[in-house]
Structures are given as structure tokens and as C-alpha cells.
User: Fold this.
Amino acid sequence: MTDQQNTPGAPEAVLTVSGLTVTFPSADGPVRAVRGVDYTLRRGEVLGIVGESGSGKSVTSLAVMGLLPPTAKITGSIEFDGRDLVTLSENQLNTIRGERIAMIFQDPMTSLNPVYTVGYQIAEAVLAHRDVSKAQARERAVELLRTVRIPNPEQRVDSYPHELSGGMRQRVVIAIAMANDPDVIIADEPTTALDVTVQAQVLDALRVAQQETGAAMVLITHDLGVIAGQADRVLVMYAGKPVEIGSVDEIFYEPRMPYTVGLLGSLPRLDRSSSRLTPIPGSPPSVVNMPPGCPFTPRCPLAGEVCGESEPELVEVGPSHEAACHHSSQVAGLAAHEIFDPAAVTDAEPAGAPAGAAPSGEAGR
Ligand code: ADP
Ligand code: MG
Assistant:
């Protein structure tokens, strides 16, 4: 067991991703989907991975699961339980996938078999891991359905997946993950297809699953709001690379990469007096034939000459906090509208406005 990444007192690392790159061939040139991801996941912790669509979140986790197509060229290492998953055969991966590392996808039907009842599918997972009778496995299935807050679990246990709502199906998938008693749960956009109210229930179920199994979890989402109440640490990805990583408080309250500030500005927040949202203008770059420099440059109002020339590396900006930005010290303390919509700042808060001035006319809306 390598433990050079383990600081004394910190829980042991269960998954260590180092220098991971994934490239797909294409007619237009190599698609550099993942360009160097490093993270350590410690026992029992929740790491949120966030970024806009196409930033390489799913490809990163599919690499961990060994689920990428054979055309994908992978470099780097993914260390789990003393082995490098990148080097394992399909057979060796089969003993890890689903059991030691459980995966929850956006669409629960990716994981459920439509021709078996949900009780049967959960009981199968229980039987694979515990020396119990079929009747006991069924009882455990009912108990797990109750744990993930499925109403009337004694009846629902005999339902087929199609008889359940999307939110309930996703909770069944979580129950199966729990029955497998995994070391790691990777949830990729687990609530993206669901209504907001149902989202909250599924996130609750995920939290319960993570706490009761003691598994470490990677929670992948394009929505920082999903991460707020769930994660211990957050990794922000842009164009195939981490651009900021830190504790959930560091990311939410002291972001140091303009992209992170922009993601926060697109998020409705109750703890801000202003309810105005500031979306990030533009869209993410193509990861084919990327120009040199920071990939966020075309969208970044703070960008200067150096940003177009060299891509910044992650550097330490706090105790457990790293950011990849040439101007990270300038970003400290700035809100999204100050970076992305400075005109609005001058309009709304003219310098030298009298203290206690009445809020400008937003009445009626
Ligand atoms: P995210 O999950 O962050 O939305 P993905 O990890 O799915 O993004 O994709 C990252 C990049 O890799 C995208 O540009 C996507 O088009 C590309 N990509 C993903 N899978 C494949 C594949 N099988 N072949 C070619 N390109 C792919
Ligand atoms: Mg994805």
C-alpha cells in the first residue's frame, strides 16, 4: 500500500487518480477529453466534481470504471486497493465494478433490468455479499427500500422498474449500491433528469447511502447547487482539466478562478441580498486543436496577455485549496457581477452613493 499521499491523521486514500489523460481519435484530430486530472479520494469523504457539459467529468469517471471504448487512449494511473485500474484486464475489472466501486448514472434504467422486480434485483446484490437465505435477502431489500425513503416498501419490493417514477427508480439504484457495500460510489449527474423536489429526495437517499456504507463518494454534476449540501471537497473542471480544487467552503466563499466565480454567479443563493444571476458569457472551447494558453481566456474579462500564452498550472492558494489562474490573487473577494458584468456594478452602486440610499427601482419584479 503506497501511503506517501496520506498525511498523518487523515483517513486513508481509497482512490488516487494521477496524471489521468484520455484522448479519442477523430477525423478533425485528437479529442483531448481529459488533459491531466489528479485527485485523492479518502475513506468516507464526498468529492464533488463540477463543470459545464463537455468538461470531461463523465470521461474521467468512466476511465475509473474501465468503461471507456477501446479507441480511448488513456495515460496516467488510477490506484484502488493497491492496484492500478488502468492496467487491469476486463475480467479483473469485473470483480471491482459494481461491487467495490458502484456507479450511479443519470438514467436509472442503465443499471436496472426491466424484466425483474426491484426486490429481486436488490436481493441478488444482498445474496452476492452476505451469507443469508432468500427470505432474509428479501427482508433486507425491503429494509433498504425503506432506508432510501421509498414509501410502502413492503408493496414496492414486488414492483417492476417501469411501475416506479424516475425518482423512485434512482433510489432503487442507490439501494442496490448500498447492498453491494462498496468502498466508492461514483454518481454521475444522478439528479439531472429529475424535478427539483424529487432531486432533493434523491440527494437525501445518496447521503444516507454514503453515510450508512461509509463509502467514499464522487458526486458529478454541472450544477454547483447540487454539491452545496453534499460534498466535503469540490473539484472544478474546465476543458478537460481541474481549474480549482478545495473544501466546499473555500470553493463557495473564497473562489480564486474566474470560472468558479462565474459558476457561483449563475446559482440562485438565499444568503445574498441581490437575487440577480450573472451567467458566464460564451461557451466552453472545443478540446480538438486547442490554442495555447488558458482555455478560459476567450470568456474571461480579467484575461491579459500571459493568459493567451501559457496555460496556468494548479497552485496552492490556501491550506487545502488550489487554483489554476494567472490572476488568482486579483480574483480574491470578487463577486461574479464584478468580473463578468462590471457595467451593472457601476449602474447599480455608483461610487459615493449616500449610505442608506433607497434600493433602486426593482419594484414590481
Ligand atoms: P461532461 O461529462 O463533463 O459533460 P464528457 O466527459 O462526457 O463531458 O466529455 C468530454 C469530451 O469528450 C467532450 O468533448 C465529448 O464530446 C468527448 N467525448 C466523450 N466521449 C467520447 C467518445 N466516446 N468519443 C469521442 N469523444 C468523446
Ligand atoms: Mg457527463
About this structure: The longest strand covers residues 13-24. Residues 256-348 form one domain. The chain has two domains: 13-236, 256-348.
